[in-house]
Each structure stands twice: as C-alpha cells, then as structure tokens.
Amino acid sequence: MADLSQLVKAYDVRGVVPDQWDESLAELFGAAFVEVTDADALVIGYDMRPSSPGLAQAFARGAAARGADVTHIGLCSTDELYFASGALGLPGAMFTASHNPARYNGIKMCRAGAAPVGQDTGLADIRALVERWMTEGAPQPAATPGTVGERDVLGEYAAHLRSLVDLSAIRPLKVVVDAGNGMGGHTVPTVFAGLPLEVDALYFELDGSFPNHEANPLDPKNIVDLQARVRATGADLGLAFDGDADRCFVVDENGDPVSPSAITALVAARELAKHPGGTVIHNCITSWSVPEVVEENGGTAVRTRVGHSFIKEQMAKTGAIFGGEHSAHYYFRDFWNADTGMLAALHVLAALGGQGRPLSQLVAAYDRYAASGEINSTVADQAGRLAAIKTAYEDRDGITLDELDGLTVTAADWWFNLRASNTEPLLRLNVEARDAGTAARVRDEVLAVVRA
C-alpha cells in the first residue's frame, strides 16, 4: 500500500512512478479531488514525462466517475494550466514533477480561478479520502458519470500573456532560450511568435528523460550551456525554464546570472507604473533591493514566508499587484495571482527592448547588494542548530531577530536567514550584505555554528 505521508507534500503530490504511486492511485486522487472541491467540471493538463499522459487519464476517470465533466488541455506548462483554470473558471490538475528527475511525477491542484490547493486548503482532506478508499475500496460511481473532452488553449494562453505587456515598440533582440527538454519548448514558440526576436533554441525537444541536463535552472550546473551559448553568439540575454516552465531564470549579455530578486524588483517597478500605489509581495529571503525599489516607485512592500501558498494568500488578502520569490517564481494579479515565469520573461524583454543599454547595465539599478546564494547544510538536529544560532546572536547590540520563516537576523549592513527544509535534513542559509567581504564573513561565521 502506498505511503501517502511520503507522497503528499505541503503544496502538491509528488513521488517516484511506479514505486510510490501509479495510475490506480491517480484515479483515487481524481475522485477525491472532485469530492473535496465539489467540482462539477475541471480541467487537466500534463507535462512531457512518459508517465504523465497515463496518470492524467486515470485522474480524469476518477473525476468523471464522481460525476464531473473533464476537459483535457493536453501537453502544457503549469502556468498554461493556471490560465485555463482562470479563464474557464474551473478547478484544475496539472501532472508534473517540475524540476525533479525523470522517474518522478506529481499533481499540482487548484480550485477555480487558479486558487491553490495546499495542506490547509483541501490537500489534507484529499489525502484522507484517498487513504480511506485505499483500505475500504473505491467509492460508488455517481448515477450520471461526467463527460471527458479536449480543448487546445495554447493560443489563448499566449494571447492573454501578450495582452499584459506592451511589446509593440521593442528593438530587435537576440535571445537564447534553454527549455531543458521541458514544456518551455512547447510554449515559447507560440508566445514569442511575431515578436522582433531572434530565438536561439536550446533543448526544445520534449523529452521527460532530460538527456541534456536536469530541468532545474536553480542549480548553476544546469545553466552552463545557456551561459556558453550567450557568450559565443553575442546574444542580448538568455532565458532558462524549469521542467514545467512556470519558473524563468535570466542571464545577461555576458552570460552572468541575473538574480531573481533583481528581476522581482524590475518587474515590480513596471507593474507599479501600470498600477500606481499598488502592493507588492516578496518573501523573507529576497534582497533588500526589492522593498527599496517598491517604495521608491510609490508602492507598498509586504514581506511573507517562502512558498507559493503564502504568497498567493497574501496577494489575495492585500490585493497585491505582483509578488516575487528568490526561487524565480513570479505572481501576477492579472494572472489570477498565479505564478508565471513566461510573463516575467516578457517583462524583461519589454524592459530591455524598450531602451538601448545592455541587460547588465539595466539590472544594475535593481541589484544593489552582495548575496551568498542559498547554501545547504546537512544536519541531524535542525531545531538544535537553529537554537544555537539564535543564542549566538540574540544578545548582540544593533541586531534584530524574527521568526516569520526560520530565523532572520538583521544588522545595519547585513542580514541572514536560516530555514529548515520541510523534506530533507537540511538547513538553508541565505546571506546578504552591503559588500562582498561582509557577506563572506557573516556566511562563514554562521556556517561555523551550523556545521559544528
């Protein structure tokens, strides 16, 4: 019997196929999703992994057996599924394991309007139902089963994104795009069609075995090919998408990575120009640059915990126009508060193409501090090491501590955040300072305690 404690995560379902889950379990998840959301219709999409079509069809069988009408949109990116959920007003399920290796697959679920389904918003209830049915047997079918149909929304998705960013006056740009054999290879050609872009396509072939590199641009080794191609061809910029193409990473004309915090600040300034006085959400490990730029542009910055459910909750609560995370997730009110790396990419293209400077100079205004990047340490006692760090800093003059998400320690010219991983025996450290020397000193001081 499957162990759902290992399969059902904080925000989604994710595990190895068929070792941890298979189509029979996907069918139960489909039935439970309908039961918990009370959906009479839903939309389903999937990525390029070999197991995805079968899992999606099994989920659809379970949902239809409970009386819900199912619309398959087929191969799509996660943000294309969110578009379908928002535009059609339907709950949705996306079959993907994002950036995880090929043997993994998962389900990202949402209510109508792309509202997230997480542990506290229905996922725990779905898990409980599936566990019960695994023991007692599947529920009786509805008296009238639902229908199963198909709809292609790629063109509508692309048109909606293009309607949100003015690209009419941009200069011609050469852009290298690394799709990592993921869903960016499916969506980029349609979204970028007709723009004055010379697109150099890297790894656009849909291949869930990821023959070239993992579709995880957060790991520096996976953008090496992109960086090399940008430098070799004299491109204006490079874009890298993860496996389900909901995150976008940017490199400048020198092949140097542009921090997601700088992209968050750049997009925030552009969104505030459209929506003066708006609120922008950022998580607690984005750069100091983000709230500074938001306030300089007349907006209100709101700090929240890491994770899309917290960002989306705060966006709904505050009416925020935009939100950004260090992990290159970008959320837009104009996109049902959902995350879309493609829309962020269009903003970068519009900002770069609307003026004459290279990207490195353009983003310099938004990248003001020295950062360590995320550093992971394997520890046996996460709570004990966090407590040791708190003890080491809590009585120092000029230091403030908060525990919004892990432990954040802030001084006049530096800050760091130390958080426990939810899924691994790791502590994650992020440090930022006004200069690189200070960032290195604080990093080494914290790691000496964490790894003691």
From TrEMBL:
<dbReference type="InterPro" id="IPR016055">
    <property type="entry name" value="A-D-PHexomutase_a/b/a-I/II/III"/>
</dbReference>
<dbReference type="Pfam" id="PF02878">
    <property type="entry name" value="PGM_PMM_I"/>
</dbReference>
<feature type="domain" description="Alpha-D-phosphohexomutase C-terminal">
    <location>
        <begin position="374"/>
        <end position="448"/>
    </location>
</feature>
<dbReference type="GO" id="GO:0046872">
    <property type="term" value="F:metal ion binding"/>
</dbReference>
<feature type="domain" description="Alpha-D-phosphohexomutase alpha/beta/alpha">
    <location>
        <begin position="6"/>
        <end position="132"/>
    </location>
</feature>
<dbReference type="GO" id="GO:0005975">
    <property type="term" value="P:carbohydrate metabolic process"/>
</dbReference>
<dbReference type="Pfam" id="PF02879">
    <property type="entry name" value="PGM_PMM_II"/>
</dbReference>
<dbReference type="InterPro" id="IPR005843">
    <property type="entry name" value="A-D-PHexomutase_C"/>
</dbReference>
<dbReference type="Pfam" id="PF00408">
    <property type="entry name" value="PGM_PMM_IV"/>
</dbReference>
<feature type="domain" description="Alpha-D-phosphohexomutase alpha/beta/alpha">
    <location>
        <begin position="263"/>
        <end position="369"/>
    </location>
</feature>
<dbReference type="InterPro" id="IPR005845">
    <property type="entry name" value="A-D-PHexomutase_a/b/a-II"/>
</dbReference>
<dbReference type="GO" id="GO:0016868">
    <property type="term" value="F:intramolecular phosphotransferase activity"/>
</dbReference>
<keyword id="KW-0460">Magnesium</keyword>
<keyword id="KW-0479">Metal-binding</keyword>
<dbReference type="InterPro" id="IPR005841">
    <property type="entry name" value="Alpha-D-phosphohexomutase_SF"/>
</dbReference>
<protein>
    <submittedName>
        <fullName>Phosphomannomutase/phosphoglucomutase</fullName>
    </submittedName>
</protein>
<keyword id="KW-0597">Phosphoprotein</keyword>
<dbReference type="InterPro" id="IPR005846">
    <property type="entry name" value="A-D-PHexomutase_a/b/a-III"/>
</dbReference>
<dbReference type="InterPro" id="IPR005844">
    <property type="entry name" value="A-D-PHexomutase_a/b/a-I"/>
</dbReference>
<dbReference type="InterPro" id="IPR036900">
    <property type="entry name" value="A-D-PHexomutase_C_sf"/>
</dbReference>
<feature type="domain" description="Alpha-D-phosphohexomutase alpha/beta/alpha">
    <location>
        <begin position="156"/>
        <end position="255"/>
    </location>
</feature>
<keyword id="KW-0413">Isomerase</keyword>
<comment type="similarity">
    <text>Belongs to the phosphohexose mutase family.</text>
</comment>
<dbReference type="Pfam" id="PF02880">
    <property type="entry name" value="PGM_PMM_III"/>
</dbReference>
